[in-house]
Amino acid sequence: MAANFEYYKIFYYVAKYQNFTLAAKALLSSQPSVSRCMQALETELGCRLFVRTKRGVSLTAEGEQLYKYVAPACEQIFKGEENIGGTLGYQNGSVYIGVTETALHCFLLEKLSSFHRQYPGVRLKLTSGTTPNTLADLKAGKTDLAVVTTPIREDSHFRVTLVKECQDILAGGSNYSYLKGKKVPLSEVQQYPFVSLAENTMTYALYKEFYASHGLILKPDIELATADLMVPVIRQGLGVGFIPRELVKKELEEGSIVEIEIEEKIEGRHICMVEDRQKPLSVAARHLIRLLKGKEPA
Question: Per the database record, which ranges form the HTH lysR-type domain (predicted)?
Answer without folding.
Answer: 9-60
